[in-house]
Design a protein that fits this description.
This protein is of the alpha/beta class. The chain has one domain: Stationary-phase Survival Protein Sure Homolog, Chain: A (3-Layer(aba) Sandwich). The chain is 33% helix and 19% strand. The chain has seven helices and eleven strands. The strands form two sheets. The chain has a nine-stranded mixed sheet, sandwiched between helices. The chain has a two-stranded antiparallel sheet with strand order 9-10. The radius of gyration is 19 Å and the shape is globular.
Length: 284
């Protein structure tokens, strides 16, 4: 190794050692509601204020309901951005999975301690929504790289969700207090979950925060509710188009135990579901 290589390696080791000594971690953060979504900003500021080193790589435009898809049939571009985060920030003209994949391969100087995705505008709870979630997809891309991964979503009423989506700058006063409490709880929970999650475990921690979220809101381990979501497109219009129509779906055979993610949110709990992808297809 040449002198420059040794110097760079010494700098990296020094920085890693300093952050570890200070108790901070290094996180890559993405989302599916775009870099300009205030829900992302609240999470970034909470983690930065808690003393963590951050990189933010988020989609340029909203990528909701896109799951773990990648932009196979079109090239994407990456640009540096400044949103006042006081940390390196980029925007990508692709999906949350694109953001994480490109960040880990081409942007970040080293792997982070974990990949975080969120806060999502609205819940990502139940089997009817988890596989389709771009927020979950961004976290899953981190797990595919062997990293601890956490998806974070903020439950909302349907009326508030619609108001936020209709505004160019989604600041709704009723939500700000809840987001402050949710982000504070998330900043405490995330390091604990990262330390408890071995690398190459193929696990995504799916956290859903209730509305309203309070400092005393309790955390409950949950399982995904069994929800079917039929007919999410309306009938064909005069122009020949079928348009998306949101529905919460219908829960089937709700169990008395264990507690489901939707039941936890309805009761005011923070829902923590462990999505262990290594168990897919295992024999019973």
């Amino acid at each position: 190794m040449g002198q420059i290589g040794r110097g760079k390696m010494s700098f990296i080791l020094l920085r890693v050692g300093l952050w570890a000594f200070l108790g901070g971690m290094r996180f890559l953060i993405t989302n599916d509601d775009s870099l300009d979504c205030n829900f992302l900003h609240v999470l970034v500021h909470a983690l930065r204020d808690a003393g963590h080193e951050l990189w933010v790589v988020a989609p340029k435009t909203e990528q909701s309901w896109i799951g773990a898809s990648k932009s196979r049939h079109r090239p994407v571009t990456v640009e540096t951005a400044d949103r006042g985060f006081k940390c390196p920030t980029w925007t990508v003209t692709g999906t949350p999975s694109d953001c994480v994949n490109i960040a880990l391969a081409h942007i970040l100087p080293e792997y982070p301690d974990a990949v975080l995705s969120g806060f999502n505008v609205g819940m990502n709870a139940s089997l009817g929504f988890i596989p389709a979630s771009g927020t979950i997809g961004g976290a899953w891309e981190g797990a595919l790289h062997g990293l601890p991964a956490i998806a974070l979503s903020q439950d909302l009423t349907f009326e508030i969700f619609e108001r936020i989506k209709e505004l160019d700058a989604p600041h709704v006063s009723e939500v700000e207090t809840t987001l402050a409490h949710s982000s504070a709880r998330a900043a405490r929970m995330i390091p604990e979950l990262v330390r408890a999650t071995p690398r190459h475990s193929f696990i995504v921690h799916n956290l859903n925060f209730p509305y309203p979220c309070r400092p005393e809101s309790e955390v409950r381990r949950t399982v995904p509710a069994r929800v079917v979501v039929p007919a999410i497109f309306g009938p064909q219009s005069d122009d020949g188009m079928h348009r998306f129509v949101f529905t919460f779906g219908k829960e089937v055979d709700p169990p008395d135990s264990p507690l489901t993610d939707r039941a936890a949110l309805a009761a005011g709990y923070i829902s923590h579901t462990v999505l262990d992808y290594s168990k897919l297809g295992q024999m019973p």
